[in-house]
Amino acid sequence: MDRRSINGVDIDERRSGGVIAVLVLAIVFIGIAIAFAILPPEQSRPMVFGVLGLLAVFGVFSLFATAVGILRFGRDTQKTDYSETIAATADAAIAVVDDNDRVQWANGPYLKLSEAEEITHAPVPAKLYAENPDVAEATYRLVRASKDRRSHMEEVRIQHQAKPDQSRWLRMQTWPLPAEDKGRRSVRRAVWQITDITADRDRQETVFQELQHAIDFLDHAPAGFFSSGADGEILYMNATLAGWLDVELADTTTGQIGLKQIVAGDGAALLLSVTPMHGEVRTEIHDVDFVQRSGTVFPVRVLHRVSFAADGTPGASRSLVLNRSHGEDISEDLRAAEVRFARFFNSAPIAIATASSDGTISRSNAAFARQFAIERTGRDGGIVSLNDIVVEDDQAALEAAISAAAGQKDRASPIEVTFAGESKRTGQIFVASVSDADTNKDALIGFIIDTTEQRGLEARVAHSQKMNAVGQLAGGIAHDFNNVLTAIIGFSDLLLADHKPGDPPFQDIMNIKQNANRAAGLVRQLLAFSRRQTMRPQVLDLSETITDLAMLLRRLLGETVTLKIDHGKDVWPIKADLSQLEQVLVNLTVNARDAMPNGGQLTLRTANIQADELPEDGEIDMKRTDYVLIEITDTGTGMPPEVMEKIFEPFFSTKEVGKGTGLGLATVYGIVKQTDGYIMPSSAVGQGTTFSIYLPRHELAEGEAPKKAETKIQPADLTGHGKILLVEDEDAVRAFSARALKSRGYDVYEADSGLSALDVMDEIDGGVDLVVSDVVMPEMDGPTLLTELRKTNPDLKIIFVSGYAEEAFRKNLPEGEKFVFLPKPFSLKQLAKAVKETMDEAV
Question: I want to staple 525 with a disulfide (CB 3.0 to 4.6 A). Which of 98, 482, 667, 731 is the partner?
Fold first, then answer.
């Protein structure tokens, strides 16, 4: 072993030098002794004393030197500093740095790394890669740790400047050395070590690539594989199984998927209940159904292996999954057919039961058990025969169908039945024979279809179609009748203008006008029912509207009926015609009063109804959105079902002749429907009636707020001047209107159609101030006439008159078109007022 590497000192040379010194000293003493023996005693005695004195002085000096440690006796055992030797011969670059950022010691690899010839020229480790941005952040953390007297390690990647595809990995470490006290100050040092770990990283990358290949092989295996924990949590799943289950492979490692999510039914319990085998491995085979994320179920065979610890604690499973779906497993056609049949039978949405030739049920599917569960628990002994599921009145027809099917006399034909039980559900039963049945036990098969909802839907559709048909008929009659009433009321006004109240004909004319107005009221109700009346919708606060109307409603109810108003909290605004809504509440209040001849209570309740709170048995076209509910409930006599079916039909009434027109509820129905709402009645004889009105919620725009209808100031003077073109195809209406306007001071030009009106405008060069036109006319209607007139006179004012609602023809006009609408029938005063207000408006 070379002993010359420690601090540059040769330990063997130092030891040989000491032996020579001892030999020299021994020779000197031997020479002195020989000299003393040769010399005479007289000469040798002084010399002996001198030598003895010298030795005595040397001995005393040696004693003091030994006491203070200058001299040591015995062999000098040299201690080698192995830690320094290891550091000096290490492959890693190591340096010791003090608090003043100076390198105190460094081994050869560090000097080579720092390209320094001597330690005094070596830079501190923090400056070796100061200009490399990849290492700067890690170096900063290491310096902070060194200053804080903490150990720290970083692994960094250094990109080769000339060869970007090559890089090095370094592990940089620092740890503090014990502090040394030197006088008044304490010296602190830290060790820095820099190790090249590029080869280790390359080996890790190689191992990782091999692992990726192994995972890739497993992921694309033709069989599924998973591992589950003792609690059913999926620990691993290959891509094949994840594809079958239609789940994201990344989700299988987050603990969000367990056996209960991928195994249908109670199959997860089978995989979790493996019998423990202490210290051994157990493999079981299970045929279960797996379920996809979409809910689709497919059959699989699971080879489930679980290892157990010595105490019986189960470990993670190793489970192989074989897909037995159609097209995946062709080795067991019979088993696949059984699976399909069991699945079809139990998953069918209709009730199916097999029975013997006398109707005794042998087996049934899940839908049958679910559909007749209530009836089964309510009968002694449960359901035994097909006859047990129908009411007594339908059992004879079902028995005949069973006998016909058993004798193969008839194919499966449906019979309409009512199912037994309190729900009174209806349905159809198909009974067919099974010709190849092995035993009489499964000779028949019955298909039971519940048609309760279908019949209810059909009834609502039929009722809705009937109401629409009646509404169209009523609307057409009302429109034609309006023209007649307009002429009667108009000419009555002309006659009244020529007679004073004291004249004999005056009272007769007044009777004619009053009855005509009464007929006009009936026509308006018919228009309301047919949803063809003009609406003036505005944003309303329902609570405020009902509060304002409460006094009138109490007067209508009288003293024997009390009114209770229950306002909902923060009721949403609605958009409706205020006067029409008030008419709805008044009509329902009057009907409720008449249903409580001996007194009672009328409750008016409002509430917000969200889309998911709507009744399931509502009208078929009811939109799923938010509504405001107005519920009117009385404690009256109630109505039987046969009356409930007709209450909204025009002229249907349960009151005595002369006490009602039968248009009250028809008007309510029309107004609610024209407001895009729905009305649903419910009643029980002797318990009272409830009308539930659902009006759409109105979303307020920015700056919009509920408001009340504004009352216009009536003009005192209805006379005027100007040129008016009157277009009306009804001669009587045109004649009355022309006389009425001329009597108020206007110059009137008449036309009996739209084409005639254009000819008149050509004759007078378009010099008119106002056009009063009917809407529905032959050859050219009112909206088309307005479009033609706007071509030559864009600022022309116009008043449309019609027996239909304004909305019926507004859609045929250009967007933003301005006009005034006057509904028929109208009186002389209403016509003069409309013309006066229109003529006075600023252009």
Answer: 667
* Confidence band, pLDDT 50/70/90 cuts, at residue 2: very low
Nearest to 740 by CA among 611, 640, 828, 620: 828
**What does pTM read for this prediction?**
0.41
Retrieve residue 211's tokens: 């692992």
AA identity, residue 323: N
Cβ(104)–Cβ(98) under 8 Å? yes
Phi, psi of 168 (to 5 degrees): -120, 150
Confirm if 263 and 250 have CB atoms less than 8 A apart: no
β 93-98/189-196 pair status: antiparallel
Interior angle at CA 753, CA 749 and CA 756, nearest 5: 60
- Which pair of tokens denotes residue 776? 């529905």
| Secondary structure E strands in 327-457 | 351-355, 361-364, 415-418, 426-433, 444-450
Cα separation, 732 vs 747, whole angstroms: 19
Q: Write out the DSSP string of 268-331.
A: HHHHH-PPP-TTSEEEEEEEEEEE-TTS-EEEEEEEEEEEE-TT--EEEEEEEEEE-STTT--S
Q: What would the two tokens of residue 169 be?
A: 């990995």
Confidence class of residue 331 from pLDDT cuts 50, 70 and 90? Answer: low
The CA distance from 351 to 372, in Å, is 9
| Region for 730 from its dihedrals, namely left if φ exceeds 0, alpha if ψ lies in -120 to 50, beta otherwise | beta
- DSSP 3-state assignment of 696? strand
In whole angstroms, give the CA distance from residue 346 to residue 338. Answer: 12
